[in-house]
Prior knowledge:
Elements (H helix, E strand, L loop, with lengths): L1 H55 L7 H11 L2 E6 L4 E4 L10 H11 L18 E9 L2 E10 L2 H51 L14 H48 L9 H29 L4 E5 H11 L1 H6 L3 E5 L5 E5 L2 H15 L5 E9 L3 E8 L6 H4 L21 H11 L3 E6 L5 E8 L34
Parallel strand pairs: 6-8
Antiparallel strand pairs: 1-2, 1-4, 3-4, 5-7, 8-9, 9-11, 10-11
Helix pairs in contact: 1-4, 4-5, 5-6, 6-11, 7-9, 9-11
Amino acid sequence: MRRRLIALFLGLVALVLLAVEVPLAAGYAQARTQELLIDRTGDTARLARLAAPALARDAVETLEPEVQAYARLYGIRVEVHGIDGEVLLSSAPGRASSATESQEQALAQALAGRRSSPPQTVLPWRASPVAVAEPVLRGSEVAGAVVTVSPAGQVVRDVVLYWALLVGAGLLVLGLVAVATWPLSRWILRPVRRLDDAVHTLTTGDLDARAEVGHGPPELRRLITDFNRMAEGIRTSSAQQRALVADVSHQLRNPLTALQLRVDALETGLVPEARADHRLAMEEIQRLTQVLDDTLAMARAQEDRSAMVAVDVRECVRERLRMWSDAAEAGGTEMQLAGDGSSWVLAPAGVLEQVLDAVLHNALRFTPGGTVGVSVDLVAGGQVELRVADDGPGLPPEQCAAATRRFWRGADQQNVPGSGLGLAIASTLVERCGGALAVRPARPHGLQVVIRLPRLEMAAPAPADRTVGQPVSGTSAHPPRTPGLAAR
């Protein structure tokens, strides 16, 4: 943006310079041409007065010493023409036949008793010789004409030099403006950059993002102040909403638990016909309890700001697969792990385990007697990709994007136990780690959850007396040395 601002300033200054220098350049060329014309008109008139008695005596050759001396002194060709236009005397006889249209026009005007018209302005690309003609009068009659043909080289050189000075002065002004605009643009754009960084950070979910007011134009400082107030209002409102959800969920659990106990105690006194209704009531109470638990977990996931620690993703996956092995065996589901080596990421303590529990629970619930495959790989962009795929019924592509929305449940899953918050909580936790969670169809059928997290670069191996994690694939894996971070 700074370059665009400087380019705008320089463009405006360049337009002003063009508006000033173009008329100056044209005016100087016209003034030099007029100066040359005045000088040559006086000389031509003097030569015409000298030629009048010579033509009267028919002794035009007496003018030759004067004409030759003038031509040698000034480098100007002089011609004396008779009344019929014939060249009677020339300082350069060989050039008499090379008259240009402007010279012929000037001669015709002089023989008609008029002074020749002013020539066109001499320009670098239009540097034809300047012809000036004066009639030679005998009384009131025209006896001939004197024509001087002046080369325009000196005028062109003067014009080019003047124009070069104008261009140099313009470039110097542009340079000075650029030098002055650089700190000015920094002063103007520094608060804009601070505000842009704060807005970007705020949109990533960090509601604590604020922009420093600092120095800059008053309007921008006021804008930053208003933004900080708005961000503080958003953070406060969000915190109040999460606190409300957490408080309501927590407060509802006590009466709900009491209700469950009382309804459960009624079972012994029910008639056989009412036992089915009693069972349905208990199931609804358990479902409502699960919804409250998941809502409370979502609120805590959004407000948790625990410190980041180094986590070995592959070792974490192995641990969670061991924990879910009994549930998989009970449902006849086979779990597989693919990928080699350790992949370290930064995540709050327990977050990655919570994410894996939610994803594996969904996969096992919808894949009885099938296969759940888990892979950990390094992908482009310095990221670790964790993929959990099952061969269950899956979801249509249009429903995959909605699967991470809160309380979303598929049309064919309304009777399946759950609250619809598991993947939403997992997605929130993954975003807190700087990653992303996506739900996609698996091939040929089923569902896959793809989690991508920024990889933590490996450093030198840890000392022998520092044991971190377990060896993976027969090699010793240690987390990188990260200041302020504890290894898991």
